[in-house]
Design brief:
By secondary structure, this protein is of the alpha/beta class. The protein folds into two domains: 6-200 and 377-403, Rossmann fold; 210-375, Glycogen Phosphorylase B (Rossmann fold). The protein contains 16 helices and 13 strands. The chain has a seven-stranded parallel sheet. Strands 10-9-8-11-12-13 form a six-stranded parallel sheet, with helices on both faces. The two termini are 35 Å apart. Mean pLDDT is 92; it is low at 79-87.
Length: 404
């Protein structure tokens, strides 16, 4: 390693999510693959989370994923309910660890909220140097508005937190061009202070061919909520012709409030579908390498990791033509966008793909190549580090202006 960018990389976890929560939903090990690569450019790592103590399993995951010798400190919010925000002593504890040194503070999502700003301010009050990198994987306020209503307190609170993070951030990162443009427009951010850095994929060593896959297996995964329109996929299975219904299976992998309704719908329609619990990231990758099709019918997405993971594994992705999904594939080249995201529309797409293994192989291979070229770990690491360097330069300019 050359000269570190800063003494510490401070990772601020999303609001209300413990590290065990992240591991339970299959995200911790996936996201720490990137953090482990980034850590090589820093003296050490500080993780700020809503845990009330770090259990041995979480520490073991860190030791397994981060390079040997990486100094990792955990700072937990130990007072009160996690929802209102971090206690003030959390920022102080991070500042104690950084001392008069330097840090890049990165929010894992826009939901990290005020604590990231508090950490930056606490470090600088102690005489340290801190650059705040406001990073989000999706537009929190838009998702809150879609779920709770545009005038709801949830949507308004999300917008207030986003605005604060964007105003205070030395650099803004979003996963798509649309998201970054939206943030810059909404919160009057200079586009020179923003960058697009997509989510990453870890490309399997070998992509199975269509003949090596389970040619009847359709998979979907994620947080099982209304926005995902998972019932559309279950109903699509009931519209397949008799021959295809006998050999096709839909696996819905995840957890969430929609589970009981989906299980009732599967039973009522008597289709070959099942709801399965969340899988660890490594097992999910194995599943994506085995399935023929990965489907997503969501009405709104950010830059969904499950979809780009499926593409990197050579599965044919069949997606609703909806915000957050419509820019991921080119129909007939790297996947299929269903213009009418109805059960009939998805049933037609499933029928065409599952009955044509050569087309399935072509689409899957093209998707895997596209994912490798566009979302590879090496590419994303380089883009992130470039954004960190800009954040550090912008932070220095901000401090110089304040001192003048």
């Amino acid at each position: 390693m050359g000269t570190p960018l800063a003494d510490h990389l401070v990772l601020v976890m999303p609001r209300g999510m413990t590290l065990r929560d992240w591991d339970r939903v299959g995200l911790l090990r996936r996201e720490w693959l990137l953090s482990a690569r980034l850590s090589a450019s820093f003296g050490g790592v500080i993780v700020v989370s809503y845990d009330r103590g770090i259990d041995p399993e979480t520490r073991l995951i860190a030791r397994q994923l981060f390079p040997t010798g990486t100094e990792i400190e955990f700072v937990c919010n130990t007072e009160g309910s996690p929802l209102p925000g971090f206690s003030s002593n959390a920022a102080g504890r991070v500042a104690d660890l950084v001392g008069c040194g330097s840090a890049v503070i990165k929010t894992e999502q826009l939901t990290a909220g005020q604590v990231a700003i508090d950490v930056r301010d606490a470090i600088e009050r102690r005489g340290g140097r801190a650059a705040l990198l406001t990073r989000g994987g999706y537009l929190w306020s838009r998702f809150a508005a879609a779920e709770h209503g545009h005038d709801s307190e949830a949507a308004l609170s999300a917008a207030r937190n986003e605005a604060a993070l964007c105003r205070e951030g030395d650099m803004i990162i979003g996963t798509t061009t649309t998201m970054v443009e939206d943030l810059c427009w909404r919160y009057r951010v200079d586009p020179q202070r923003a960058a697009v850095v997509p989510n990453f994929v870890v490309t399997p060593e070998r992509i199975p061919t269509a003949q090596e896959r389970d040619r009847g297996l359709i998979v979907t995964a994620g947080h099982l909520v209304t926005r995902k329109r998972l019932g559309v996929l279950v109903e699509a299975m009931s519209l397949l012709d008799t021959d295809l219904r006998e050999r096709a299976t839909l696996e819905i992998i995840g957890d969430g409030p929609e589970v009981p309704r989906l299980e009732r719908l599967v039973e009522a329609l008597e289709v070959s579908a099942r709801v399965l619990p969340v899988l660890p990231h490594s097992e999910m990758i194995q599943k994506l390498c085995r399935c023929a099709v990965y489907a997503q019918a969501s009405e709104l997405e950010g830059h969904p990791k499950s979809v780009i993971d499926a593409m990197s594994c050579g599965a044919v992705v069949v997606l609703a033509n909806a915000p957050g999904l419509d820019s991921l594939v080119k129909t007939g080249v790297t996947g299929i966008l269903v213009p009418d995201p109805s059960p009939a529309g998805f049933a037609n797409a499933f029928t065409g793909i599952l009955n044509d293994p050569d087309w399935c192989d072509l689409l899957g291979s093209s998707a895997a190549e596209h994912a490798k070229l566009t979302f590879s770990m090496d590419l994303v690491v380089g883009m992130e580090l470039a954004a960190y360097s800009k954040a550090i330069a912008n932070s220095a300019a901000r401090r110089a202006k304040a001192a003048a």
